[in-house]
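name: query_chain
kind: protein
chains: 1
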Amino acid sequence: MYYIVHYIHVLAAVTSLGVALIFPIMSRTAKTATEAKQTIELFQKLKYVPCGGSFILILTSAVLLMLEPKLLTQTWFVLSLLFYLLLQGYTAIRLPKILKQRELILEAHTDEELPVQYYDVLYKTRVQELVSQLLVLLLIFLLVFKPW
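structure:
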């Protein structure tokens, strides 16, 4: 039972945190306005996938804690919870605002070349996106290796 719940938990983590890891990469690789619009449209269509993954994560976390309550005494688990909550704040609150900014810039733009304002937003959000990606990688490290 534990292994099945754990497997579902890992799959839910990938779906809920994948956005924080992949979005910055995809948005920076767009070379034209059309590509940037398609990237934003894709993430708008997929915006409920992380929500569903997060819901499943909460359920499986509760089950795992019931099966193994000593997890709350382990540093790697507590840090994982903290990093996860930070990432959820980013993907649920900050990421939609970034998407909206980029979308508005592209709606007002008619050329195929990406506008300077789009690059300005990319530049302003790069640190937040890098931190979110590092948190995802740290979270994966903690969950795989359980170092403490």
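note: The chain has five helices and no strands.
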